[in-house]
Amino acid sequence: MEKIVTLIPSATEIVTFLGKKNSIVGRSHECDYPKDLNKIKKLTSPKINVEGTSGEIHKEITKILENSLSVYKVDVNELKKLNPDVVVTQAHCEVCAVSFSKVEEIVFNHLNKNTKIISLQPNTLNEVFDDIKRVAKGLNIDEITTKNLIKPLEERLESIKSKSLKKKKRTIACIEWIDPLMVAGNWIPEMVKISGGEDIFGKSGKDSHWVKFDEIQKYDPEVIIFLPCGYDIEKTKNEVENLFKKQNKWNVLNAFKNKEIYIVDGNQFFNRPGPRLLESLEIFAEIIHPELFNFNHNQIGWINFFNSK
């Protein structure tokens, strides 16, 4: 049986989606879906305190990257023991997982020369689908099987898109980091559009970028969605509560006045460019047009900040 190592959660989810979960012999410390991965060896660990606040985490990561170091450690000895045939990693973001250059260096220096590296680097939804196809090809899964697996995802996307087109687009701000403030880019603005919204800060296919509160106030979006990378609902809720206490100017925004501020599970959904982006799309649809959509993700994938106290 082919031995696979996945070094980012989206890789684990894609490999599982393609029916090859039993071939995974090693994973990153963040790979927690599907839930029954406990027996699979963890090969990475963070060099930062992931329990810190977003401000503390930002400072630690900035310091590490300024010194041209990786944010994550890899258990090279354990990786050598596993001796995988395939390593699925990413070249999208040095903060999200082990850097691609580091993985290349480890594979070249410590593993079999025939070990195959498959790198994910999506910026749009189409590129996420392309990555799934590329992983499938790398794992020798035939095109017809792959097409049949992806088709239901595409159908779910088109169903949401066709329904939302009938409604007036609502202005949306998607906050990907809290301290300092960052607005989401890449596939997020595209997903907002499909769900019936207009992302007024993020640019589809472009990197996320820092933003000042004054800019948010200037454009005064109808809906604000907090989806910090790596954060679950509870952690995000605590950070947003602290943000509003420290900066009480948020209450001048229409989204605040109209109780249209939402918290989603960025860790499990929006920040993982794999098959579950379709569930993320459903969450957006429920938030942006609740009169049209109900996929039962409320309280599981998202909450209204004001109704959660």
Q: Could you explain how this protein is built, in words?
A:
The structure is a single chain. By secondary structure, this protein is α/β, with parallel strands linked by helices. It folds into two domains: 4-147, Nitrogenase molybdenum iron protein domain (Rossmann fold, 3-Layer(aba) Sandwich), CATH 3.40.50; 167-307, 3-Layer(aba) Sandwich (Rossmann fold), CATH 3.40.50.1980. The protein has helices spanning 9-17, 54-66, 76-82, 100-110, 125-138, 143-164, 188-194, 213-219, 233-246, 254-257, 266-270, 277-288; strands at 4-6, 24-27, 41-42, 44-46, 72-74, 86-90, 116-120, 170-177, 182-183, 197-199, 209-210, 223-226, 261-264, 302-304. Strands 8, 9, 10, 11, 12, 13 and 14 form a seven-stranded mixed beta sheet that branches. A five-stranded parallel beta sheet has the order 3-2-1-6-7, sandwiched between helices. Strands 4-5 form a two-stranded antiparallel ribbon. Strand 6 (86-90), helix 4 (100-110) and strand 7 form a beta-alpha-beta unit. Helix 5 packs antiparallel against helix 6. The longest helix is centred in the middle third of the chain and has 22 residues, at 143-164. The chain is globular. The model has no long low-confidence stretch (mean pLDDT 92).
